[in-house]
Design brief:
It is built from 12 helices and 19 strands. By secondary structure, it is an alpha+beta fold. The strands form 5 sheets. Strands 9, 12, 15, 16, 17, 18 and 19 form a 7-stranded mixed sheet that branches. Strands 1-8-6-3 form a 4-stranded antiparallel sheet. Strand 10 and strand 11 form a beta hairpin. It binds oxidized coenzyme A.
Length: 407
Amino acid sequence: MGSIKEIEIKIPNLGEAESTEVIEISVSVGDKVSTNDPLIVLESEKAAMEVPSDFSGKVTKINIKEGDNVSEGQPFICMEVDDKSSQENNTKDDLQKSEPSQKDEKAKSNELLNPSDNKPINTSSINAGPAVRKIARELDIDLSRVNGSGKNFMITKDDLKNFIHSSKPKGNNYADINILKEHGSYNLEKQSKIRSLGAKNLHDSWVSIPHVTHFEEVDITFIEKQRKEMNAKSKVKITPLAYLVTNTAKALKEFPIFNSSLVGEGELMIKQYINIGIAVDTSDGLLVPVIKSADELSIEEAAENIIHLAEKAKNKKLLQKNLSGGTFSISSLGFMGGTGFTPIINPPEVAIIGVSRAKKVLSIVDGEVTEKNILPISLSYDHRVINGADAGNFMNFLKDEIEKGVT
Ligand code: CAO
């Protein structure tokens, strides 16, 4: 192995073009590159070409930035290379410095020349024109994954379109009616608008948000007793859901990240208002009317809101304002059953609670067998925003608050 030396890499012969734009820098300082690894991509009016490395080594300096105009011979990258390897490439280096040959002078403006042998750079891996590269950059498409159907495997706009369509998830996974028809008689039904829009929203949420579901059990033995006492006096019927609403509002105040929306990459909007949507089952499908300012409500007021909105939903009387502005949702299957389920997040919200059927269990407390009423609850959350520890803390807080009852 020879000693290490630092060399400058220069912009190769650009054919007729006097200068050309750097549209991509493919390496960073500190990167180890091998011979033929792309260093930069240049784009003239007619072509875009990669400039590969003639050496194996480490990038120590980059003198240009994307968008710069560069011309032949301009040093653009410094690399630390093994002396021996650089000597092996000396001939190439010399050629890079030499005047272009007559043949080169005739080079067409849409060809960039490879510094190693003054032949057109082999772009069989990525052969695409400026317009296609521009679209690919805008849409963040890795052109090395696109098959080119043009001359010399050039990637055309149609190739890009085909790539975009083929990378989309395959529709909604609808069954092929023609295949199903063969197996027997059937009825075709039209889904209500609410169901069909709901289906689309649920599908979009499920495929675009990384859901994680956290399960918890809340001891509602005390609050069930308290609830019955309150119901004996209260004008409105208080169900376990009212406890869920008021205590979830407390938890959202304590853990505001659960009351947020992801509004851009790395940009979270934390809302200072707490509006809780309640999933209501109607004959037309699921609706989620919103209880506004849930953190300001007493348990009776929360119960009143639930009854009022559920009635409106079932009688098709909800207004747009009743359905908008939610910051968090609760889906209570309640007495309908289930020991637990994974609710789907209602975007732009980042989490949702699911409530399953309460069950009586025998538990040992201080050596005594005791009957307990246990309410299973689950929390699905957007893992881009909320992590497992956040979810654990949120659910522990919520459980403690519910178990305390109305104080
Ligand atoms: N476990 C056992 N019983 C429960 C319960 C639970 N988790 N939650 C409620 N109950 C009981 C109530 O206490 C009440 O019993 P009592 O009359 O003896 O007090 C009874 O079930 C009926 O309650 P309710 O359903 O009238 O009231 P609610 O506040 O619990 O729920 C509403 C209201 C509108 C949310 C509900 O009617 C509803 O539509 N739920 C369906 C929501 C849904 O479909 N979610 C799934 C979405 S995912 O597809």
